[in-house]
Amino acid sequence: MSEEPKGIREGIEESEGDPRLILLLNAVLSGGFAWTVLWGLDRAGMATLTAPNVGLLALVIFVATYLVVMR
Q1: 42 falls within a domain
Q2: What whole-number distance in Å separates Cα of residue 30 and Cα of residue 28?
Q3: 10: number of CA atoms within 13 Å, CB side?
Q4: 1 in a structural domain
Q5: Residue 1 and residue 3: Cα distance in Å, rounded?
Q6: Containing structural domain, residue 22
Q7: How many domains would you assign to the chain?
Q8: Is residue 11 in some structural domain?
Q9: What is the CA radius of gyration of the chain?
Q10: CB 61 within 8 A of CB 33
Q11: CA distance 41 to 21
C-alpha cells in the first residue's frame, strides 16, 4: 500500500522555516510595537516620541522576543 500524502498540519509541523524571515518579522513588528507604545506615552505626556527612543525600545523588544522564542 502507498502512504497517504501529508496534510498541511504535518507540513507545518515539520517545517523549520527560514531564520532570516523570522528575524525580519521580529524586527518589523518590534519597531511597530515600539512606535505605538511611545506614541501612546507621548500623547499621555509620559515620554517623547523620537527616533532614538523608538530605536532603543525596538531593540529591547527585539532582543527579549528573540531570547524567548529561540530558546
Answers
A1: yes
A2: 5
A3: 4
A4: no
A5: 7
A6: 17-69
A7: 1
A8: no
A9: 19
A10: yes
A11: 30
pLDDT tens, N- to C-terminus, the chain (71 residues):
567 777 777 776 777 778 898 899 999 999 999 999 999 999 999 999 999 999 999 999 999 999 998 77
0.85 cut: is pTM over it? no
Cβ–Cβ under 8 Å, residues 30 and 36: no
Dihedral class, residue 51 (left if φ above 0, else alpha if ψ from -120 to 50, else beta): alpha
The cell numbers describing 2, all together, are: 502507498
Q: CA separation (Å) from 47 to 43, 53, 60, 63?
A: 8, 9, 16, 21
Q: Would you say residue 7 lies in a domain?
A: no
- Measure the CA–CA gap between 55 and 50, rounded to whole angstroms: 9
- Kindly state the cell numbers that stand for 28: 518589523
For residues 27 and 32, give the distance between their C-alpha atoms in angstroms, rounded to a whole number: 9
